[in-house]
From TrEMBL:
This is DUF3700 domain-containing protein. Residues 6-281 form the DUF3700 domain. InterPro entries: DUF3700 (IPR024286), Ntn_hydrolases_N (IPR029055), TSJT1-like (IPR044828). Pfam families: DUF3700. It comes from Pleodorina starrii. It comes from the Eukaryota.
Amino acid sequence: MVLHMLAVFGRETAHPPTLIESEEALKKTHQPVLADEERQAEEDLCAKLVDAVFNAAKPSSRQKMMLGKGSGMLWEASPYCSYAVRDGVHVLFTGEVSEWPGGVNAVSAAHDAFVRNVPPLEENDAHWLLDFYSTFGKPSSDSTTGRALECMAQIKGSYAFVVYDSVHHRVLAARDPDGSQPLYWGCTDAGQLLFGSVPEDLEGCNPTAAPFPAGTLFASERHTVAYSPGDYGWVIVDDDFPGLLMSFLRTAKEGEACFRNVKAIPRVTSKGVVCGAVYKVASVPDINGGVC
């Protein structure tokens, strides 16, 4: 049975990549500043989405966390579905990792702690992920993305996770290369970005929620920018760049250390109308020897 895991992010928190939003959502996600009534509407919608899944989850294990700015998280706590928070960084994790970057064997560490009758190094995989996240580097640095992909390529296990860094306004999501753990994503007409382990929990998405591509890392980071609109001084707002979807699967060519590309495949309705796209990691070499 799949455990419920849901993460909802408001327009001021994360931006999806292109082509998974409806036209209605696009009109809203590119508004740099939300009015007070819009913020309250997002909060109310987030609470409605989270509460609907909360009511469907198992009462003995269901937990939720409202994060503000139209964002929230819900999960069914178990050894294979966990939540952790530290210094403003929130983590939702499903699955199990046997080895983290740097050769850290979580299974052996837990076994050794049990044998010696001492507390484990970390409580669960969500806490291990917090340690792992701290190795990505400083936000906005040129090496952050490359470091993150290198780290992701070293993880061994079956997993899906979502990270929300409220301090640096960063959202990350990833799924293991084999797609062993279920993870879906989509965007509502209100512009909120959703991730979940159960597709029925994302029924509010338009277009409908799609599987999150295996072997990829999604990253959305909001940067504060300032501009002068004329005679009224400077205005400080967040940018509205779309999030990035990157593969951490390496190319099969010997001697190359690059990662495969991610391509968008148009979604077509039964009436022949294109409605967004789904993403997939490329696997066929192109005529230039790369990956298309």
